[in-house]
Write a structure and sequence with these properties.
Strand content: 15-25%
Number of strands: 18
Radius of gyration: 22 Å
Strand order of the largest sheet: 5-13-12-11-10-6-8-9
Distance between the termini: 51 Å
Largest sheet: 8 strands, mixed
Number of helices: 13
Oligomer: single chain
């Protein structure tokens, strides 16, 4: 890697001052990735205005509403019976008994220090990330983590590189900040590093462990090349590691942040996929030089997460309950995934899928003798089965990509084997009926 002096272009890091909420002051550093930063002051409102054409896009995607009433192969949904209710109730009652004044006092906006320490300790052996608790900021899931990093790093007109196809929530969020999105194609080795903008960007958003939606894992060789590109061009990398807890084959590749030696990666993790989105608990891990600014931005956003849920989760991790819970549901999800694959092979022969090594859904690449994805979705719905195309699955494909027309997304984590079997049988019956009628659009 080249030396940092004069190599990368200047990058602006916006650092809100808690004592002067109406202004945002940039910091100037000389010793880390954040060094290429001019001393300038910008009005905070410059970051916060929403683009008029984007305002309608920041609402919760409505694709789930379209599948209500159907036997749906939901994306990203947990089995409601998987929540560790007995253990959680026991820890909750114990925490309430000893709460004292902690329920009636303002706490650290960055989050409960015991929980942040537990997360830092866990990320070392599981993701190869060696950090201090001060680098962890508790957030309400991945979406708030994305919003916090956007407020911290972006200005109107900045360039944001993003996967194509990409998670819709990230694309719409960055668009709302008046940034210029540069889609970067994805292949079976993950994001194409050769297609990254040569001049760099303010930020790159990526899901390297289980690319959303296609499920590809970014190879180690590409991870190293991507980090080299980020360092040379002065680009921050936002690593969304939304479901890496569920890996079923081989050992997990080290997180980008674990490989980063120049403090250019920001890591986002969540408990929404392992415990449930109802808890609204996730976390942001930032380089050391951004820990203070990130904490200040978090203060401006909401002054921190509720204490009670954080305290219970901290105890759940400390007592080993979380590790046992993960082991149990990982095994359950692996069995459901394998059953889904068997059902697809039984009804459609040798099936091409991606993303089966990890996560809670697979991407089914439709063979040429099956209808296009939107047509198949409609046909399945007529059989009371709900499936997802890219565009109905919280995906932004920037007007169309190589996977848009012939990819179906199938979730398996919220269904039992009987429901999975019925769902695939319904799809097969719809296809058979179409072939009998001579249809294949």
């Amino acid at each position: 890697m080249p030396d940092g002096t004069g190599v990368a272009r200047e990058r602006r890091v916006l650092t809100p001052r808690v004592e002067r909420l109406e202004r945002v002051e940039c910091v100037d550093r000389q010793d880390t990735f954040g060094d290429r930063i001019p001393n300038r002051v910008f009005e905070s409102g410059q970051m916060l205005r929403l683009a008029p054409e984007a305002r309608h896009r920041v609402c919760v995607p409505d694709q789930d509403d379209q599948l209500e009433g159907l036997l749906a192969l939901w994306l990203g949904r947990l089995d409601p019976h998987s929540f560790p209710l007995k253990a959680w109730r026991r820890l909750l009652n114990r925490t309430l008994v000893t709460a004292g004044a902690r329920l009636t006092e303002y706490r650290d906006p960055a989050g409960l220090v015991e929980l942040r320490r537990a997360i830092a300790d866990r990320l070392g052996p599981t993701r190869g990330i060696k950090i201090e608790p001060e680098q962890v900021i508790m957030v309400a899931g991945c979406q708030e983590g994305l919003n916090l990093t956007a407020r911290l790093l972006l200005r109107e007109g900045d360039t944001v590189a993003i996967e194509n196809p990409a998670y819709q929530g990230a694309a719409y969020l960055y668009e709302s900040y008046h940034t210029r999105l540069v889609p970067v194609r994805v292949d079976d080795c993950g994001l194409s590093v050769d297609d990254l903008p040569k001049e760099g960007a303010a930020l790159l958003y990526i899901t390297p462990s289980h690319q959303y939606p296609m499920g590809y894992t970014l190879t180690l060789e590409r991870r190293l090349r991507l980090l080299d590109w980020a360092w040379r061009t002065g680009t921050y990398v936002v690593e969304d590691d939304y479901d890496s807890d569920f890996r079923y084959r081989d050992s997990p590749v080290a997180a980008l942040m674990g490989l980063d030696s120049h403090d250019c990666v920001i890591y986002i993790g969540t408990f929404s996929k392992s415990l449930g989105p109802g808890l609204r608990l996730g976390y942001l891990v930032v380089p050391r030089h951004l820990a203070g600014p990130a904490r200040a931005v978090k203060t401006l956003l909401d002054n921190g997460r509720p204490w009670l849920e954080q305290a219970v989760l901290s105890s759940f991790i400390a007592t080993g309950g979380y590790t046992n819970h993960l082991r149990r549901i990982r095994q359950s999800y692996a069995e459901r995934r394998e059953h889904l694959m068997e059902c697809l092979r039984r009804h459609f022969g040798e099936t091409k899928v991606s993303g089966a090594e990890c996560g809670m859904h697979i991407a089914w690449h439709l063979p040429q003798d099956l209808p296009r994805a939107p047509v198949l979705q409609t046909m399945a719905a007529e059989r009371d089965v709900g499936i997802y195309t890219l565009r109905s699955g919280a995906v932004c494909d920037f007007g169309g990509c190589a996977y848009s027309e012939r990819t179906i997304l199938l979730g398996f984590s919220s269904l039992n084997e009987r429901q999975i079997r019925r769902g695939v049988e319904g799809i097969a019956a719809a296809v058979d009926a179409s072939h009998c009628c001579g249809g294949n659009v």
